[in-house]
């Protein structure tokens, strides 16, 4: 059954968490051009329209090439703050109550921008959003998997003063960028060190890569959540394990369609994964590039797949349960969702 306008409104108003968003992927073309001008950075695109026209992706790599070019305009603390502030204002409109944000320090340090500039700029906007919008947040540092493990180890060392330190929201590490040919086991030692430091652990796996990469993320990196993980559908034993061990998948439907993981939204396996008892969540990944923020991901999914309002509440509940906040904060958000549900029961 297609969603009624009333149901769509309820899904949009529902309190929810976002657990898979790359802050550099929230950089809208207009802001890219504004920052390029502010910083005197020359872009290989004539204007906003020409840049947007280039967003015709054929796979993950074709997207990453443009995404890294877009991030080249970020130089100062104010740039990182402005980008993060814009995302959080948009997140507030989608009734996101808590967000766990990825950032890619190596993309910036390779251009001579210090990790201090990156983290301080993002943190300033996160602190501001907590008072201005009531949105809580955490930060997750992602290692770029197309670079070496040595580079990741060095990056980790430079970030150590910021992890779990007073006033900072940086709590964990992830693994992103080009998946094929860069298996999780390439980063065994750096994740071992992260675990010894008590950091929270996630990794992109099974987006374009095979189910074997999801096994490696679980067994070798010992992830607590799998980012994407949609190719788990190809492996029955893996599905059973993910359900049994309650390992959440942070699924990004519009991203998967734009990067041709699925031909169209009607082919997306999110509903099947949910019916198999997996802790599925819906997320936006790189909303400025994939045609929608969190609510647009919810609506596109629900319009294409035969899902119910019970499913919507399950997805929102999963997003809070799979978050890395302390239990009391988690319970408060889950209660808020229960109250919303009671108030909106038909
Ligand atoms: N970096 C930003 N978005 C990504 C994605 N969808 N997969 C891998 N790396 C990414
Ligand atoms: Zn991602």
Automatic annotation (TrEMBL):
Q: How is the cofactor bound?
A: Binds 1 zinc ion per subunit.
Q: Where does substrate bind?
A: 286
What is the uppermost EC class here?
Answer: hydrolase
- Zinc as a keyword of this entry, yes or no, is yes
Transmembrane feature ranges: none
Report the sequence similarity comment from the record.
Belongs to the metallo-dependent hydrolases superfamily. Adenosine and AMP deaminases family. Adenine deaminase type 2 subfamily.
NCBIfam families, alphabetically?
Answer: aden_deam (TIGR01430), PRK09358.1-6 (NF006850)
- Any idea what this protein is called? Adenine deaminase
The organism named in the record is Pandoraea iniqua
